Amino acid sequence: TGMVTVDPGFTNTASCSSDITYIDGDAGILRYRGYSIDQLASGSNFLEVAYLLIHGELPDSATLDAFVDRVNRHTFVHEDFRTFMGTFPRDGHPMAVLASGINALSTFYPESLDPHDPETVELATVLLLAKTRTITSYLHRRRAGEPLLYPDYSRGYVDDFLRMTFARPYMEYQADPVVVDALDKLLILHADHEQNCSTSTVRMVGSSNANLYASVAAGVNALSGPLHGGANESVLTMLQQIQGSDVDVDSFMTKVKNKEDGVRLMGFGHRVYKNYDPRAAIVKESAHAVLESLGKNDQLLDIAMGLEEIALNDDYFIERKLYPNVDFYTGLIYKAMGFAPAMFTPLFALGRMPGWIAQWREMQNDPETKIGRPRQIYTGATERDYVPLDQR
Ligand code: CMC
Which of 72, 200, 273, 339 could form a disulfide with 334 if both were Cys (CB 3.0 to 4.6 A apart)? Predict the structure, then answer.
């Protein structure tokens, strides 16, 4: 029906209309619901931004309190769920465990699955925001063989996440306020980014009326790839490889430019930004603040800044409009906070959760939504006769 054109990677095809996030890739502008990312990162907090993305407006203080309180009350996970999480190999990649865990949540909360009932969708929303945080802290602890810690309602979302991740049982834990603030900012910066690979996946899966958990679990898997969220872990691997080898920064960059072995400068380039990623600018500033506050002097930060300096002045990168993206400096902050590289992409997922939910809900409520079903141009064999096995 009609003319079908191929658009690999959908570089020129809009899959939906959306009121949620605005990006001007040439100017390096990012806004959630009309509010600039700079103002939200400096003035707001993660759960308020989650509310804004999902419900479209900033909440008043009573509404925000009720929302935060409801998320808090759902932060425990079922004991059987904990047992389930404990069955994965300890050194298995946490993104696989996270996707499996989120998928499994649907079996624990069957009362939250109807995609057409607003109250049920709100329940699933709250459960996901609450339990993903608990699961993420446990992903870190299991790797070290440490027990899951129970949530503490009296603490904030980020503050208690850090405690659940890093505290020893029965011991006082006080997170550094600079670290709490930086992580809150990072979660805000990751909270939505319109129709990227994982979000498009969430919408695609949800368009079949699959439940929110199934849709978001698919998004986590899409995020895990090194060209998408997995880039934050790949950046650190790249920096460590440069640090640990005799390959200096200049010869590494030569390799990238010659496209030797498909090597890319990880954390650089973006489909939409053809200018400095506004998130990367905030992250870079934050990396300095956190390292300074923790008294950490990471040589990898110097290597990263050296790579950026070269790239921003090099024709290869200038011609292709390749700038640092959000993933370039985040890993250095997470590392300074005490997270292993394998935890970097789960932290991205924790931050992206409100965006996935908001986009899924918008899709469900959009009268124009149809099941996602792209067309193709067939290039295979024309009709031919089956040849029995003994005649081949
Ligand atoms: N290093 C070296 N060359 C690059 C890079 C890079 N990081 N990114 C793009 N290029 C080159 C690419 O080789 C191509 O060159 P040519 O015109 O000679 O063929 C040109 O720039 C255009 O690249 P593309 O692959 O057509 O661009 P795309 O829009 O399809 O890909 C991207 C976007 C983000 C996948 C890509 O820039 C990339 O692989 N970057 C490294 C991985 C990364 O940092 N990903 C995180 C993205 S931001 C947050 C997120 O989504 O998680």
Answer: 339
